[in-house]
């Protein structure tokens, strides 16, 4: 494999998320440089970036290793998601362009059609594309970066089970786009918060320490302090 030096970080991150590098495994500069066809300098820079993002840790006598997030750290990600995605939608209602709206509406139409036909294979990727576009429409580079990193980490830590009625999920997304198109920031925020809360039940924590990557549920609960409870997750 040979990739541009500036893409090394993305390539390593993608391989971590997809499971090419197992949690806790060592990441040596020499082997990574050989794999991606670059010098050790961009690899070293990439590892520093990935450490700041929480994908990599540096261990004494071992060097850079893939991080091993705890159950609580994973649950915290879903809480952060339920805070940031509504903020992004509110910003999108204020700053979106016609190009953003065109893409969002097209994705909703495509998602609704495939959901009605029972063609669920592509719905997950379409949903990811929808939320990526909604984040881009916020016009906030810092928020876009946070949401992008959040999606990567959630994809790494969680498997996603499709809703029993995916048509409902896409109807929710359609309502969000309508609010964004009208410039109604508060409604876009509220609808996105509801959508995020409902979809949290779809996430099942990956347990790479168990045979066959069995999963355990992370149950969303309402309380004055926390949006996610991990009581159902075995430690």
UniProtKB/TrEMBL annotation:
Residue numbers spanned by region Disordered: 192-235
Keyword line: DNA-binding, Transcription, Transcription regulation
One Pfam family of this chain: FCD
Chain ranges of the HTH gntR-type domain: 2-69
Coiled-coil zones: none
Record bears the keyword Nucleotide-binding: no
Keyword Transcription in annotation: yes
Annotated protein name in UniProt: Transcriptional regulator
């Amino acid at each position: 494999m040979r990739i541009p030096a500036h893409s090394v970080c993305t390539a390593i991150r993608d391989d971590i998320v997809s499971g090419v590098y197992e949690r806790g495994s060592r990441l040596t500069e020499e082997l990574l440089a050989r794999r991606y066809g670059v010098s050790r300098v961009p690899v070293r820079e990439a590892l520093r970036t990935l450490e700041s993002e929480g994908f990599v840790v540096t261990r004494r006598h071992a060097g850079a290793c893939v991080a091993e997030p705890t159950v609580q750290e994973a649950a915290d990600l879903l809480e952060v998601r339920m805070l940031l995605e509504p903020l992004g939608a509110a910003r999108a209602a204020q700053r979106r362009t016609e190009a953003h709206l065109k893409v969002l509406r097209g994705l909703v139409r495509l998602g609704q059609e495939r959901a009605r036909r029972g063609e669920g294979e592509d719905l997950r990727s379409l949903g990811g594309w929808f939320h990526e576009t909604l984040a881009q429409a916020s016009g906030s580079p810092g928020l876009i970066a946070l949401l992008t990193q959040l999606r990567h980490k959630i994809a790494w830590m969680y498997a996603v089970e499709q809703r029993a009625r995916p048509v409902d999920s896409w109807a929710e997304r359609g309502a969000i786009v309508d609010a964004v198109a009208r410039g109604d920031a508060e409604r876009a925020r509220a609808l996105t918060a509801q959508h995020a809360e409902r979809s949290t039940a779809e996430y099942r924590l990956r347990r790479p320490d168990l045979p066959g990557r069995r999963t355990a549920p992370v149950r969303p609960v309402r309380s004055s302090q926390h949006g996610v409870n991990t009581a159902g997750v075995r430690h």
